[in-house]
Amino acid sequence: MALALAARPAAAELVVPADLPARAAGSGAQVVLLGEIHDNPDHHRLQAAAVAALQPRALVFEMLTPEQATAAAGTPRDDATALDAALSWEESGWPDFAMYAPIFAAAPDARLYGGALPREAVRSAVKDGAAAVFGAEAARFGLDRPLTAEAQAAREEQQFQAHCEAVPREAMSGMVEAQRLRDAALARAALQALQDTGGPVAVIAGAGHVAKDGIPAALALAAPEVTVLAVGQTETGAEPGTYDLWAESPPPARDDPCAAFAK
User: Fold this and answer.
1) Which of 26, 128, 178, 260 can pair with 132 through a Cys bridge, CB separation 3.0 to 4.6 Å?
2) Is 234 exposed, middle or buried (0-12, 13-18, 19+ CB in 10 A)?
3) With a cut of 50, which residues of the chain have pLDDT below it?
């Protein structure tokens, strides 16, 4: 049976950014997903404010592997230099740690978890499929079942646009498998964090992962009893996507992300 993830949930509720931290903290959700566009400083400032209001017992980061999270245990959260070094952040390829440091500092006692997978695992998913890479729990997170034709087509189109229409369309099915693998890995890390700490758990991840057909769908399949709040962030003029709450910020000055494909 195919996974029926194609139907779009109710539109996200637009929230004034200043109100979002209190709304997230007051939701009562066991898992709060805080989305971002990775290079937007306003998104990270709002995430830090939401984490400060929520005071989660666990923080799960898309940007960290489990090994990085373990390596940073015991490092003072208010020492950005030491935390940067403990996480080997500069070598990770993510945007400047200065944007993320306030998020860590906002919950100094929260246990850290990493939801990232090795790059070779993600590459394998492109070729062999998410279920083959994820392993024994693939069925629990729905990876053993294909998406509906509508959902598959929508996700392939998203990937095609994300790759600036510069990568052949026939490669997009593999990209979708990689995305599904990452969604499931982040959902698994969130559930482990909830089991270990009792929650609440805050998850810091890209806006695409936080959308209702991403991590929330994986969580709904694996642990339908867990309450989840999906908080999306986009930039002015962009479509809101499918979240529970949504805020928008101006885009920062940035180079054309498609320029690299033109070389």
Assistant:
1) 128
2) buried
3) 4-9
